[in-house]
Write a structure and sequence with these properties.
heterodimer, B: Pyruvate-ferredoxin Oxidoreductase, domain 3, Rossmann fold
């Protein structure tokens, strides 16, 4: 957009404070919810990127964290459970001029939307996916999600699910995501920086955010003691990133992988002809 | 049923029906398409449908053609000629290939006898050593020999056949000369066969004609309606629609993306449309089932999107390669909550164009999802049609101008349509939401907002003027009987009614194109004075009949003729029923 066209200079981006990227709506989240930190970090990143709020679309599915589009001052799309990546993909392909940021939780993204996660990584459309992972279904009041520990006790799965945790970073890396990072809501500045890099990076950028649920997983308040900022050093080398993940504690923060795969681009001729030109193939 | 009788003498016919059958890979579809194109080139109207077993490659295949002096949109009661390259599993088509004593079976004596099910019809037999003749021509193939034989039997001119062969093989010159030689050999082999039917001279060509499938017509209609983004997941029998659109869209500056499943394809389409680009996906019953939740989102968030459902036999995987009208219920009633949306039905190959285009126009104007019901018969049938009439341009989507002060995305307007802000427009940012919302778009669990938004979303559909396209209303307007039908039943009903009319049965014919919201006022006006209504459809539970009875007070005696899919109604089925109906 900021290009010089026939002697007229495109306007210099207006610098805005982070608060100008937030809407006036009050979040439905519990006090102390990690997701507030994501609103702040996202707003900060948008300000750093000097994005025009109207040129950003925040797309989500269903769940506590999926409420985030309405809390931003940009365009928002709050769709159905698990399909945010599909909606975001369609939007970005149809409107490549927009900055598309897809958001959601671990249940939305890794369980009901798991297939779309795999294929969004593969497809590598130029957009950013932020997953607020609190290892629990919060909106439905405390059921285990794919990232919940196997022995976590709940009404729906007493004594735990017995299932091993889903490994989002491993899946993203092996499925072809072009940028993979982990942030923590207790470190809003570090998270903002990661999101900023993720948005800048071409292709599909995946940011896993440790976002504690203080209501159903109060023990997650301890996460601030476990996280290791800047533990990951970005590499464009997949085998190197794989090896690094072998000793991931689950609380290692930073950018793990910044790949060089070209983003998805539709194939085929782009010449624009009149629709009526297509009639020649039917004419006898 | 019009039985083909053996009159013992050759006849000139204004409509001749032919089946080319054989095992998969024998090339009967290629030969069938060439015969279709030869007929088109010679100035005839024609229709070809295809049937095949479930195998991906191999298995039995049949190309069914009807060639005529007038436009034809369905098959006849019986086939004049059944011609086979070989008989392997061809008996499996059984009821799909009705023959009579006047029919002719053409087969290769080296491939054994025709199946008993066809011989029982009393049809005459002719033998042509297709494989031997093919071998006598370097690189010759039996299907091309059969093409030559059939062209001769029907009286199709040499040059039209040659042009059709060239059209298909033009890019493979090495195959062209042997094919033309094989066709000539097949033509020569026909001289010994007593000709039973040959085509009357073709009608004068008074306007442009097109050759296309219903799926192609729907794809082009979508583009004409303004669709520039398509998300696709393959499914029989809708795949060809998406495959046709992929390069066509690129040529008009649009984009098609292959999705990972139907949940993704519908949500991608909705995402693209939210961005302001008219969007579509196409599927069949199993895919539509998966898309239903997202269609509810499109209703609530008021995002236009079009889904073409090329119906196949259901439920579940059903019979993917065969036709049925069993998705009416899910299309009309499948969404949870009170979710007004559009359901339209195409009633001919050519109408797949106009109806899909109209669906895009309506979806855009009304900011609502539209489901277009086509079916396997219409979608995969290839036909010579009159160049379809042009639709007037639609009014397009109401877009909120950037200067709108105090913008409310879901404002309660008089006609229910609220201008939509497109991402990129400064000052109008809002969140499209499947949560119930207040006028601004902010989530609301207030009963007053819910009722207001429900009313608004219904109002925009019920207040719209759909004009005359809601149905094709034909037949005897003064008759006190009426037939109501939709989709691919329309053609056999029209033809069956014409026969019955010649025997004194008078009826109006209403083929519904707009199924939801049901234009009850117009339907009742079209039925004014009627004492007897017959509802005809192709499904097991009379879905249209029940829907109509639930939605409006149909006049007089109302009866249903319904039959599940796989077998289309023939004009004879309808004719026979109408005679009984008129006597009852």
């Amino acid at each position: 957009m900021n290009e010089v066209v026939s002697g007229t200079v495109a306007p210099v981006p207006v610098m805005r404070g982070p608060n100008e990227y937030k809407s006036d709506l009050k979040p439905v989240w519990c006090p102390g919810c990690g997701d507030f930190g994501v609103v702040n970090a996202l707003a900060k990143a948008m300000a750093k990127l000097a994005l025009e709020p109207q040129d950003v679309a925040v797309v989500s599915g269903i769940g506590c964290s999926s409420r985030i589009p309405a809390y931003m001052a940009s365009y928002g799309f709050h769709g159905v459970h698990g399909r945010a990546l599909a909606a975001g993909t369609g939007l970005k392909i149809a409107r490549p001029d927009l900055t598309v940021i897809v958001t959601g939780g671990d249940g939305d993204g890794y369980s009901i939307g798991g297939n779309h996660f795999l294929h969004a990584c593969r497809r590598n459309v130029d957009m950013t996916y932020i997953v607020m992972d609190n290892r629990v279904y919060g909106m439905t009041k405390g059921q285990p999600s794919p990232t919940t520990e196997p022995d976590w006790d709940s009404k729906l799965s007493p004594d735990g699910t017995g299932l091993r945790e889903f490994q989002p970073l491993v899946i993203a890396l092996t499925s072809g995501a072009n940028f993979i990072a982990r942030g923590f809501t207790g470190d809003p500045n570090g998270l903002a920086e990661i999101i900023e890099q993720a948005v800048r990076h071409p292709g599909f950028s995946f940011v896993e955010v440790l976002s504690p649920c203080v209501t159903f997983r109060p023990e997650q308040k301890e996460w601030k003691k476990l996280v290791m900022p800047d533990a990951f050093k970005p590499t464009p080398d997949v085998p190197r990133a794989v090896r690094r993940l072998l000793r991931d504690t689950g609380f290692d923060l930073g950018v793990l992988y910044a790949g060089e795969r070209p983003p998805y681009a539709p194939r085929g001729p782009r010449a624009v002809r009149a629709p009526s030109d297509l009639e020649a193939r039917f004419e006898l | 049923m019009q039985q083909l009788q053996n009159t013992g003498a050759g006849q000139t016919a204004r409509s001749v029906s032919v089946v080319l059958a054989g095992s998969g890979g024998a090339g009967v579809m290629t030969a069938g398409n060439m015969l279709l194109e030869a007929a088109a080139g010679a100035g005839y109207y024609a229709l070809m449908t295809r049937s095949s077993g479930p195998q991906i490659r191999g298995g039995e295949a049949a190309a069914m053609l009807r060639i005529a002096c007038q436009p034809v949109e369905c098959m006849e009661d019986q086939f004049h000629v059944l011609a086979a390259v070989d008989w392997e599993n061809v008996q499996r088509f059984n009821a799909e290939i009705p023959l009579g004593p006047g029919s002719l079976i053409v087969g290769d004596p080296d491939q054994g006898d025709p199946p008993e099910v066809y011989l029982r019809s009393g049809a005459a037999r002719a033998e042509v050593s297709l494989k031997k003749i093919a071998k006598s021509v370097p690189e010759g193939r039996a299907n091309m020999v059969l093409l030559g034989t059939l062209a001769a039997l029907l009286g199709l001119p040499d040059d039209a056949v040659a042009r059709a062969v060239e059209r298909t093989l033009g890019k493979r010159p090495a195959a062209l000369a042997p094919s033309l030689a094989a066709v000539a050999a097949g033509r020569a082999a026909a001289t010994g066969i007593e000709r039973r039917y040959w085509l009357a001279p073709p009608p004068p060509k008074d306007g442009a004609r097109w050759l296309l499938t219903g799926n192609e017509a729907a794809g082009y209609g979508a583009i004409k309606g303004g669709v520039r983004f398509v998300a696709a997941y393959p499914i029989t029998p809708a795949t060809e629609l998406l495959e046709w659109m992929s390069p066509a869209l690129a040529q008009v500056g649009g984009t098609l993306v292959q999705a990972e499943d139907e949940l993704a394809s519908i949500n991608m389409a909705i995402g693209g449309s939210y961005g302001g680009v008219p969007s579509l996906t196409a599927t069949s019953g199993p895919g539509l089932s998966l898309m239903i939740e997202a269609l509810g989102l499109a209703v609530a968030a008021e995002i236009p999107v079009v889904v073409v459902d090329v119906m196949r036999v259901g439920p579940s995987t059903g019979i993917p390669t065969k036709s049925e009208q069993g998705d009416l219920n899910i299309a009309v009633h499948g969404l949870h909550g009170d979710a007004p949306h559009l359901v339209l039905a195409a009633n001919s190959v050519a109408d797949c164009l106009g109806t899909t285009q109209w669906a895009v126009q309506l979806a855009e104007a009304l900011q609502a999802p539209a489901i277009v019901l086509s079916d396997q018969f219409l979608g995969q049938a290839r036909a010579v049609v009159e160049r379809p009439a042009q639709l007037a341009a639609g009014s397009g989507r109401a877009i909120a101008p950037g200067s709108t002060p105090g913008y409310r995305r879901y404002a309660l307007t008089a006609n229910g349509v609220s201008p939509m802000a497109l991402p990129g427009t400064a000052g109008l940012a809002y969140t499209a939401d499947g949560l119930e919302h207040a006028e601004r778009g902010t989530p609301s669990s207030q009963a007053t907002d819910h009722v207001a938004q429900l009313d608004k979303r219904r109002r925009k559909l019920t207040e719209w003027d759909y004009g005359d396209r809601w149905a094709d209303v034909e037949g005897d307007a003064a008759a006190n009987c009426a037939i109501v039908t939709f989709g691919s039943c329309t053609a056999p009903v029209r033809e069956g009614l014409a026969r019955a009319a010649a025997e004194g049965v008078a009826a109006r014919l209403i083929s519904l194109r707009l199924l939801a919201p049901l234009p009850a006022r117009r339907l009742l006006a079209a039925l004014d004075g009627v004492r007897d209504v017959l509802v005809i459809e192709q499904n097991h539970t009379a879905q249209l009949y029940k829907y109509l009875r639930a939605e409006c007070d149909l006049p007089g005696r109302v009866t249903s003729l319904h039959r599940p899919g796989a077998l289309q109604f023939s004009p004879g089925d309808i004719h026979r029923h109408l005679l009984e109906w008129s006597r009852a």
